Amino acid sequence: YHVCGGSLITPTKILTAAHCVTHRFEVRLGMHNQNSNKNDAEQTHSVSKIKIHEDYNWKSIENDLAILTLDVPVTYTDKVSPICLVPSCFDGADQTVTAMGWGHTTDGGQNSHVLRHTDLTVVNNEQCKIAVQNKYLADSALCAYAEGRDTCQNDSGGPLVLEYPEDTKCRFKQIGVVSYGDVCASGTPGVYAKVASFVPWVEEMAQL
Length: 208
What we know:
signal; Thrombin, subunit H; TRYPSIN_HIS; mainly beta; 6-stranded antiparallel β-barrel; Peptidase_S1_PA; disulfide bond; zymogen
């Protein structure tokens, strides 16, 4: 049963949300279709180690990042390859970005059987604080919004990416990790862990 997403950043490391890693699970890669009985994943791996960010706060959901270590390295294919991370100086305000996942297609509904994606626009944090009614929104958070479109339950941990069509080595770079939101697609931005704020930590933990 699908409960969270993640992104491959090295042959043995998965970047996901800290609030996702509360139980035992396996990691499926190269998958597009999935339901309760079967899936088309190219590779399935067990997790040998979980590293949750030291400053993760489960009440405020700040620093909502974790890195999973897989039992054995993945094999890179045309469907399984690592994503690049944006640099720590990256801002991203007003950029068009893409979120993806197999999460609920409506608030409180059911998971999607296929990988879905949607384009959103990054909202600056001052506007986001007003929209989500949280004046304490951390600088390490990133918000994204589009009318009628959003991430939803069970999309957590998945990537928010920015496309660089001219970059043949890193066409997509990850700028966020799905963290939390209000009622899905209800008119308020979704909140993501801002990858740029955590690049040194990710590089150290993943030995990049």
